[in-house]
Specification:
Elements lengths: L5 E5 L4 H15 L4 E5 L12 H10 L5 H15 L2 E5 L32 H14 L5 E5 L6 H11 L5 E4 L21 E4 L4 H12 L2 H7 L3 H13 L5 E5 L2
Parallel strand pairs: 1-2, 1-4, 2-3, 4-5
Antiparallel strand pairs: 5-7, 6-7
Helix pairs in contact: 1-6, 3-6, 4-5
Amino acid sequence: MSKPNWVFLSPHLDDAVLSCGGIIRELAIKGSRVEIWTICAGDPPAGPRPPFAMSLEQRWQTGPESVAARRIEDRAACARVGATAVHFDLPDCIYRRLPDGSPLVDGENDLWQPLPEGEIPLAERLAEQIKARLEGNCRLAAPLGLGDHIDHRLVRAAALGLNIPIYFYPDYPYAARPGVDIQKYLLPGWRRRRFVISPAALDAWRSAIELYPSQISSLWRDLDEMHNAFQAYVEQGGGRSLWIKPE
């Protein structure tokens, strides 16, 4: 199997495709071998799932097989943009627990908390795992962390811990929120790289987002709203830039 020359880190089973599916498709069209490594793609730990997690599973209409269903969605969406899906075994934050056994996330507001001190060693371990899997001159892209979701913060922290050149992408749909300030997520010396995305790549990106039916209800009212929001984001130039962190 050919080694990838681009790897996109995705906190969840949708983030990389949502955020930069057009860039990924364009890279694939031009001959790059792209993999999307979803970090929080593991099965929930044994035992009862936290109440908030079960409420989300009900919203997604996936039930207790939520992670397995979302992995199936992700493989199809990644393939649509020409990438290979790779799923790590860390559970989503909605399933993780604190050292005392209580849920890391009790409700919606807990999703946007700063990275807890107890998760910092986890970010360090993830950095080691990512570095061990990277091959040769493979280029790495990671989320900027727009929106401040705890798992996005985790993956950003792991990427920054690698101390290698990295491309960072704005997290969509957070990047489309009014008043979002990308600059506060950039560090000194980072520079912007813009990509030209063909109509064919844009169509692939849009249709790949549709392949995450479980997540549509969490992000938009319905598919029509998703299409309108996507079109507005594209017309504003969204999804066409990565920011490069030098070594």
